[in-house]
Amino acid sequence: MSVGTQMVSGLSSGIDWQNMIEQLIAIDSQKITLIENKVSSQEAKKSAWQSLNTKLSALQSSIQALAKESSFNLYKTNLTSSSTDVAASDILSITTSTTANQGTFKVKVNQIATSEKLSSANFANREEALGLSGQVVINGRTLNVESTDTLTKIAQNINSLNSGANATGVSASIITTTSGSYRIILTDKNTGKDGIGIQDASSSNLLQALGFTSGSESIKHQTSNGAASDKFGSTQAAVSALLGITAPDPATSRVTIGSYSNIEIDLDMSLSQLVQSINSQAGQTIASIEESENNDGDTVYQLRLVGTTYTDSNNVLEAIGVLQGDHSDVSEIQTSSAITKIGGGAVDASTLFSQINTGGGLNNVVNGDTILISGKDHEGNTVSSTYTINTTDTLQSLLDSIESTFSAAGNSVTASIDASGRINVTDDTSGESLMEVNLITRNEGGGTLDFGDFDISTEGRSMQIEAGRDASFTVDGMQFTRSSNTVTDVVSGVTLNLKSADPNVTITANINRDTSSLQSLVNKFISAYNDVQTFFNDQSAYDEENETTGGVLFGDTTMTTIQSTLMTRIVSTVEGAPEDMNTFSKVGIRLGEGALLSLNQTVFDDAVASHFDDLIDFFTAQGTSSGSNLSYINYTSASKAGTYAVNITQAAAKASITGTTDLSGGLASDETLTIADKVSGAIATIQLTAGMNASAVVNAINSELMQEYQEVVKENAGHTLIGGGAVSALSTWDQIDTTGAGGNDLSDGDRIVISGTLRNGNSVSGYYTIGDKSTDNVQGLLSKIEAIFNSQVYATIDNNGKIVLTDRQTGVSKIDLDLSYSGAGSLSFSDMTVETEGRKAIGVQATSDSNRLVLTHNEYGADYGFTITQSTNNLGITDQEYAGLDIAGTIGGEAATGKGQTLTGNDDTTNVEGIAIRYTGTATGSIGSVTLSLGMGEILDRILDSYVDPYTGYLNAKNTAIDDSISSLNKQIEDMEARIELQRSSLYAKYQAMEITLSKLQQQQSWLTTQLSTL
Length: 1015
Fold this sequence. Notes:
Layout: H1 17-67, E1 75-81, H2 88-91, E2 92-96, E3 103-111, E4 117-119, E5 134-138, E6 141-145, H3 151-161, E7 170-178, E8 181-188, E9 198-200, H4 206-210, E10 217-219, E11 221-222, E12 226-232, H5 239-243, E13 252-257, E14 260-266, H6 271-282, E15 287-293, E16 299-306, E17 310-311, H7 316-319, E18 323-325, E19 329-330, E20 333-338, E21 370-376, E22 382-388, H8 395-407, E23 413-417, E24 422-427, E25 436-441, E26 455-458, E27 461-462, E28 464-466, E29 471-475, E30 478-482, E31 486-487, E32 494-498, E33 507-513, H9 515-540, E34 542-543, E35 548-549, H10 557-570, E36 589-591, E37 597-599, H11 601-610, H12 612-619, E38 622-626, E39 630-634, E40 642-650, E41 654-658, E42 671-677, E43 683-688, H13 694-705, E44 710-715, E45 751-757, E46 763-769, H14 778-788, E47 793-797, E48 803-810, E49 816-822, E50 832-836, E51 844-849, E52 852-860, E53 865-870, E54 881-883, E55 888-891, E56 894-899, E57 902-905, E58 916-919, E59 925-933, H15 935-948, H16 954-1014
Antiparallel strand pairs: 1-33, 2-32, 3-29, 3-33, 4-8, 4-28, 5-6, 5-9, 7-8, 10-18, 11-12, 12-16, 13-14, 13-17, 15-16, 19-27, 20-24, 20-26, 21-22, 21-25, 23-24, 29-30, 31-32, 34-35, 36-37, 38-59, 39-58, 40-55, 40-59, 41-52, 42-43, 42-53, 44-48, 44-50, 45-46, 45-49, 47-48, 51-52, 53-54, 55-56, ...
Helix pairs in contact: 1-9, 1-15, 1-16, 10-15, 12-15
């Protein structure tokens, strides 16, 4: 505090009252210092508790690792090769999971899996329109090619299909074979003999025009009695929609299937409709649908046909993958200039040398002139010979000499003359060729015979650059094939990574327990425990000589309680563990000086080698059961170890009903039966006809209950063309009647706003812009819808011009679509209505008992059931809901809750909370017992969790209490400092007032003295 100069302490009074005040304040401030010391002490304790919390958390993490049974299932591998020249790692590598087993097996890799590569024909320019159009299916997705597309554009469009949720896995690149010669190369991302699925899907034979296939076809998916199609994700959606084919060309085609000709195929039908149509046309069952799962676990469907011979029309069988175009090699052909005869016309093989027009309509070939035949054969070997002309010889003799010249090098050719009089030399070995042909006329007699240069008229190439192949290998002498070089399903818990093939090399794989990793986990636990114990020791230390304590927690009862609890558990036995392996010391972890742990390597190694399962039982929780049809499931952190009797008062049951009507005489009349699943709400409607017996009724019900449907929503009204008829995907926007009176008022740049919901109910939105209404078509909008819906739907337009949205997956779905036009025109879209409710198969099974219908749910319990509704009760079943029964009973005499066949100890029960068992029997009463052994890992984890849990742990509460105490003490300090400051201010004010008063009195005294002295 500052004062004015005239207020300097003692200036008038002579008393140093400022120093006196500060001494008084210092005495009072000693109380604050005492409290501040308490704060420091509390903060030191808090720091110590936090340190202990960190150490206990580390200890908990280490014991949690040992409490997991998977931690004991660690393995190390070793590969050895039978060859001194080939390293095992060059052939094979392996990885293991926790489900592996110790052992040895031998592997031979005969062939690794490869990816297919296909080549197109050669094209002279990559940026000029090819004038080709049509549709091609590539691994289930359709490529649309227009006449204006260039080679580059086609490659780009192929690559665009290799993206999103349904990527084809096929990439396209363009290579330059020679200057001015380009090809598209298709490469499959996946390996395996199935290779690239590429099929023509229009009558234009586009694949043949591009040079990817020849003119012949073969069955793609051969079956024992016929063929199968590619796999599809739905039986209800139109096949054209599933493939993305716009306006199948033509809409219907006629094919031959086995002995049945003229079968009409309509790709706008669904698989189910196709089967019905084909069988109806054939007059018997030659088509069916096979259901399976793909690698992602999704249900897929194949059309299966009976018959070994097929003729295709407009490539409809190829489009759906029943047939495929063959990839044959192409032989190179080199061609000379055209040669004419005297008098006109092209030469042929029978033309004499004397008849050749060597210029001006004359012949000046002379006997004895020679022709040098030179070049290279298929493999690049040099060929050369000399042919001597006899003017009376025919050109056939020259052709023969060409063939013999090339044959002498080991690779034959065929020489011929075409209708234009050109010599064609065809490589008899197809595929990529190094062949070169030269005919050098020496004209020794002064003539002018000249065959010109030979140019490549057909370039030799392989349509299939590399075949897709499955991996072929043996394990312990057993032969296996797989489409991938990563094999996970041959040796349990082991992944084989096939790297190269060598049938003459055997790789021996040894799998042993990784005891070093297990020991590392044990050492981490020992280290973490010792870290905690050292903390306790340091805090509890006492120096008698200097009478000083070791730490701020010295004598703290909480700390000693934690220390004592842990020590008690460390030296205790594990209830339920084998007697020779139920303490730390018996597994090789000994307690030594300072209560620190150490590893007895000999004992531990013996436990691992001879008592491994017992070692697992010591550390991990184990549950067992005794009694018929009784099994242990799991426990929770509240469950206690022990053996508990299980008493069943009610066994679980499935929802079931048996009709009272005997159907041996047939169903009395037509019946519409509706079955609604209680859980999913899915509804199945089955049409039963009069006269059906019990077997027919059962088959009809089960057939429908097993069906899975995709959700389908459709516009209520369709769109029409100006000239009449329904709008299709290929209709351009200026062709649509938007006014309703045969007019179109759309403009370039108009937008269509797209919004809707995905199958899970999440909203999506976006827009489509009409760039050029005269060239942009409706397919652009459909493709945009699919993109906005993350490729989870098929967007199509039906034969009535209605936009249709189909979920790509079966099951309950919330897909919906709303389209609104944003522009000055009159285009409008109607509301969407659900046409087909999506659902999975309903878990109800129909059987018969004594010719009476029995309906039974597949699952046990009161949550599962079904509701029956009938048009007329011909089955003897009451229309109502039928539900199953949950199991009921007790575990260890304590309350438990049943759900299906599972009985679980109730919350807050003394011992069995969270213990769950499954009982599959029907008897009631005492049916056995369940035993739970917690294991040392679980026991210590629970103890430590009670201390370190961030919400309920004791140390958290301890730190909270300390924080509250520090806050309270700091508040006291603030209050005391405020009071002292007030006291200081008050004393200063009083002494300042005294100084002022004394100063005034002194001034008056001085004045009076002065006045008196003048008298």
